[in-house]
């Protein structure tokens, strides 16, 4: 999800050609150790090489159809994932970000007016809070940063406004998702991963309370309980694309970066996960590209259908 968005969005499947391991072009990348290099490029006929050869052959044998087999050969299968981080809007949830934001502000403005608040004042204060979270130095939670900016802009009591906003997210917010058609392939991907023993989490832009995140997960045809955790503004100290956000997600999951596959649709916000050492897969159905982001053609990418197929080819951890 991009909020506010200054990037170009593009719909479609594998429009960037053959899929393969991502070559991060973010500055400030770290070098890999000798053992990591051996694992990524094992010598012929060593145990490591033979293990990955047979694991890859088994994965390809389960891939759907000869065409998909041909595509999957482009992937680097050497990384041993234990957990998959999913972006939500535009990835698991097939909803265009611009459409979502228009509906969100319309519903919130109407709610504010119904409760005696100036619609323009309320929306202006919300945007002030969003900008404050985007510029946060990480010393306070996004929740605290947002409400400090909101109350400064309105002069209203923060606790009263929190109670009022809770009513919105537990009620009228559901209207924002009316008409959204869940993609069953997202549910297939999640179910496949969990069935193989992979952990899954939702690492969405943490600018909303948890109730709003859970509601959007349900719009995607999924259950919040399907996921180990979902990021929200009360538990996060940074937002995408700050490295601190991904570092906190790694700490929360208790994993090293090389165990993580980030799945998203924004080449900068989601792609920055590679800067802390995660791998990346771009879902291209609602792709958003920024000039400052990764080159999608040099990363794993495909439609949600293709991603779900790819998940079926991953080795089981059980």
From TrEMBL:
Domain of life of the native organism: Bacteria
Signal peptide start-end: none
InterPro entries, alphabetized: HAD-like_sf, HAD_sf, S-2-haloacid_dehalogenase
Entry annotated with the keyword Hydrolase: yes
Protein keywords: Hydrolase
Chain positions covered by the region annotation Disordered: 1-28
Coiled-coil boundaries: none
GO molecular function: hydrolase activity
Protein name from the UniProt record: Haloacid dehalogenase
